[in-house]
């Protein structure tokens, strides 16, 4: 799936069925459902979910919590806009 396909899927009511938890969480946060996205990454235990978890806490404005999750993901703290970071994370996860 390409980033364009993933973005197009935002017109649907549910994320693509083949989406890994981290991608599903990104999908839900872009749809405006932060809580649902957070629930998904809280249940997942891997670096991809930690990276999305960090992004979610940036969205929330909780930068100290975001820093913790960036460390868990072994990623640097994002400096890009939230939209640019969302696209970068989605692109990386879709390439896996």
Short key terms for the protein model shown above:
mainly alpha; globular; 96 residues; Serine Threonine Protein Phosphatase 5, Tetratricopeptide repeat
Structural description of this entry:
The protein is an all-alpha fold. It has one domain (19-95): Alpha Horseshoe (Serine Threonine Protein Phosphatase 5, Tetratricopeptide repeat), CATH 1.25.40. The protein is 68% helix and 0% strand. The longest helix is centred in the middle third of the chain and has 14 residues, at 47-60. The protein is globular and about 35 Å long. The model has no long low-confidence stretch (mean pLDDT 96).
Summarize the structure.
This protein is mainly alpha-helical.
Average pLDDT for all residues = 96
Q: Total number of helical segments?
A: 6
Report how far the terminal alpha carbons are from each other: 10 Å
User: Tally of extended strands?
Assistant: 0
At the first level of CATH, what is the class? Mainly Alpha
Structural class: mainly alpha
Give the proportion of residues in helices.
55-70%
Within the CATH hierarchy, at the fold level, what is the topology?
Serine Threonine Protein Phosphatase 5, Tetratricopeptide repeat
Radius of gyration equals 12 Å
| Low-pLDDT runs | none
Number of domains: 1
Task: Furnish the topology, listing elements before pairings.
Layout: H1 3-8, H2 21-30, H3 34-43, H4 47-60, H5 63-73, H6 82-95
